[in-house]
């Protein structure tokens, strides 16, 4: 029995060919246990959480809070706020922490490698508050310019940096980024959306102040993610969404808020999604993540070498710790055409700017074709992929 | 609906092709059907927003007769433009405006016609129609 058998979608055909799913950096597929958990929740336990005393409400609350326990234990974190995903988690830092702690003239440090979700919230806040944004450049070897980073930290209050690039697969020197930020007196937010699927990060050891990620990139459902927060940063946060569940009491003259994570989870939360995410954690706990990470990186490295041999330009380096992401371009076949041809043969890959336009501008391109590998992908699939790439190039180049 | 003869012939030809790769190859070949729109004339106003590729067009209406000139860096996108060219060039503007985009689905060149940022064909079609409406 292979790992692939746990994922029902992977047995389907696309355009008459067996599906080979290589768009994992966008979202991963879901094992049957996650699908079943969500279905079971709606079939047996659906209710709203926290307030009611009836049995279903108790089961729903337990299901929702069980997910928080999984997150805290998986990442060794004290505070885990459930959000709709990485984007909301970053926005929560911008509005929950940024608005309460940043003043006009304060400095936020970003990098050219960021996903739009770690740029746009800060640009909006910058316009609202008169905050200065500095961008750390990306070097020709696809790494961050650490000298420029050190300089950019002067008077910085917050650093927001991607752990692993969704375009390049490059893992940044996060330990150094965190330690330098703290030495400069700045807090640091890590966008770990592409990191957590491959790396079981210990948040306490990691020592970042905030870490944002999504469930759906690690076999969990869409629509749910989390923000991990260090206790001192948590105390500095103010809610930016008001509503039910986040309050202690409400009168016509004002409201008081809960003091735990619920303070930042206004409204009916993502209950079914939380139940599904717990099932994903449980499924992943039986997986040897480091071994798979190494296996997938080797597949990515092999794929990248083959693509170079075919005449493609590959963006990324595939060194130890990097994610199994292969971004490439062919010199004469347009990336969108290439992806359509691949789709016709059953391969799912991504094209476009991958929501990282500043990075692509830096690289002097407008988009790439991106093949990204995950737990269920195999060397055999990579070989089929390369053979199809050769066929397309032979026919259309 | 009743399509112009040239378009109906094209729809029938596509209907006979079952393999997705062959459909794409055919669309690819239809990129030669466009009336050239030189890159030097491409600008923000001629750009088709929402296409992942760089795609531009202009519509000229002379004596009520439509001519579409266009081009794209993606051959498949330019092929879709070739299909629209076959559907509308040399026809009266008021007849062109009766055309609905559904034929693209009948041809099997699209999974969906819903307007979205990734739906190049729908964006091309909508821009062509809006230009015809403006210039008729």
Task: Summarize the structure in words.
Chain A is 40% helix and 18% strand. Chain A is α/β, with parallel strands linked by helices and 397 residues long. Chain A folds into two domains: 129 residues, Aspartate Aminotransferase, domain 1 (Alpha-Beta Complex), CATH 3.90.1150.10; 251 residues, Type I PLP-dependent aspartate aminotransferase-like (Major domain) (Aspartate Aminotransferase, domain 2, 3-Layer(aba) Sandwich). Chain A is built from 13 helices and 17 strands. Chain B is α+β, with helices and mostly antiparallel strands and 136 residues long. Chain B has a single domain, classed as Sufe protein. Chain: A (Alpha-Beta Complex), CATH 3.90.1010. Chain B is 45% helix and 13% strand. In chain B, strands 1-3-2 form a three-stranded mixed beta sheet, covered by helices on one side. In chain B, strand 2 and strand 3 form a beta hairpin. In chain B, helix 3 runs parallel beside helix 6. Chain B is globular. Chain B starts with a helix and ends with a helix. The chains are: A alpha/beta (397), B alpha+beta (136). At the A-B interface, helix 11 of A face helix 2 and helix 3 of B.
